[in-house]
Amino acid sequence: MTPLPLAVSLGDPAGIGPEIIVEAWSRRKDGGTPPFFVVGGRGVLEQAAAKRGLAIEVASISQATDAIALWPEALPVLGEKDCAYTPGQPDADGARLALFSLTEGTRLAAQGEAGGLVTAPIAKGELAKVGFTQPGQTEFLADAVGCARDDAVMMLAGPSLRAVPLTVHCALADVPALLTEEMIVRRARIVAAALRRDFGIENPRIAICGLNPHAGEQGRFGSEESTIIEPAIAQLQAEGLPVTGPHPADALFTPRARKTYDAALAMYHDQALIPIKALDFDEGVNVTLGLPIVRTSPDHGTAFDIAGKALADPGAMMAALRMAGDMAARRAAHG
C-alpha cells in the first residue's frame, strides 16, 4: 500500500466521475483499493451516492494526511469548493469545479502531500470555456509539474495489454510528419524506464508498430518504416533494449503476439486505443509515464448520456486506483 493517500480529481461533475468514485470507495474492501481522498465536490459526491443507492458517509478533511484515519468509515473530501449536481447537463460551474479539483490535486501530488493523482474524466470543451488551454489532462499535468510535454507519455494499460500511442491528440493526416526517429527513441526509453520503476519489469520487452498496412511491406505501401521506424529500432537495440518491429498492427494485438512483449508502441491514437478498449474497456487505465508524480485515470470519458442513472461501471476507476497505489508504493520503496 502507498504510505500516502492518493488524491482523486472529481472530473466533470455532470459526468460519471462522481458516481464511479463513490462506488469505488463503497467497494474498497472487495477491490483492494488503496486509501484516497477527493479534491472538492462533497455535495456532488453525496448526491451521486444517493443516485446509486449507496448509503455511505462523505466527510470533509482539512489536510491530505487526515484521509488515512477517516478512510475506513467515510469517503474523505479535501476542500470546500462545490457546485450543483446536474448529471448529464454540464455547465460552467461544473467546469470550474473540475478545473479546481484537477489543479489542486496536481499540486498536492507534486508537493508530496499525496502519493499520486487519479483523475476522473473531464469534458475538454467545457473546460476550454473556463480557461483550460491544454489539449488534455496529460499536457496539463506536464505543464503543471514542469515536465516537457514530449516527455509525458500516455500509456493505456489493462489486464491484457499495455499500449502507447506515440502521437495522440492530432489529425490522422498530420501523423506521418510528426513521427521522427528521435521521438520514437526518446519515448521508447521513457516507456522502458517506467516499466522498470513503476511496474517492476526488470527487462521490459517493447514491440513497435509500423505505420502503414503490413508495416509498409518493404516500401510498397509507404516509406516511414524504412526511413524512420527501423532506424529508431536499430538504435534502441544497440543500446541493449529488447525492442522488436516494425510489426504490422493488424497482427500485433492477437493473443499469441501479446505474449511476446510487455508494451506495444503504436504510431497514432486509434492504433493503440482501439485494441485496449476492445480487450479491456471496463478495466483500462490511462497512465502518464515520465512525470515526477504518479498519475492514472480510467480509460473512458464523461459518458454524459448515462450519468446519474446508476449504469456506469466503476471497474476502470478501481483499476486506476489500484495501479496508482502500486506505482506509488514502488516509488516509495525504491526512493
Task: Please describe what this structure looks like.
The structure is a single chain. The protein has 335 residues and is an alpha/beta fold. The protein has two domains: 1-147 and 293-335, Isopropylmalate Dehydrogenase (3-Layer(aba) Sandwich), CATH 3.40.718; 153-290, Isopropylmalate Dehydrogenase, CATH 3.40.718. The protein has helices at 17-26, 28-31, 42-52, 66-70, 92-110, 124-128, 137-144, 175-178, 181-199, 224-238, 249-252, 255-258, 269-280, 315-334; strands spanning 6-9, 36-39, 58-61, 75-78, 117-119, 153-157, 162-165, 206-209, 243-247, 263-266, 285-289, 295-298. A twelve-stranded mixed sheet has the order 3-4-2-1-5-12-11-6-7-10-8-9, with helices on both faces. Helix 9 (181-199) packs across helix 10 (224-238). The model has no long low-confidence stretch (mean pLDDT 94).
Question: Can you give keywords for this protein?
Answer:
12 strands, 335 residues, alpha/beta, globular, Isopropylmalate Dehydrogenase, single chain
The average pLDDT score comes to 94
Compute the number of helices.
14
The description of the largest β-sheet is: 12 strands, mixed
| Global geometry | globular
* CATH level-four homologous superfamily name of the largest domain: Isopropylmalate Dehydrogenase
Number of domains: 2
Estimated share of beta-strand residues: 5-15%
**How many beta-strand elements?**
12
CATH architecture of the largest domain: 3-Layer(aba) Sandwich
Strand order of the largest sheet: 3-4-2-1-5-12-11-6-7-10-8-9
Gyration radius (Cα, Å) is 20 Å
Order of helical and strand elements: EHHEHEHEHEHHEEHHEHEHHEHEEH
**Helix-strand category:** alpha/beta
What percent of residues adopt helix (DSSP H or I)? 40-55%
CATH fold name of the largest domain: Isopropylmalate Dehydrogenase
Distance between the termini: 15 Å
Identify the CATH class of the largest domain. Alpha Beta
* Low-confidence parts: none
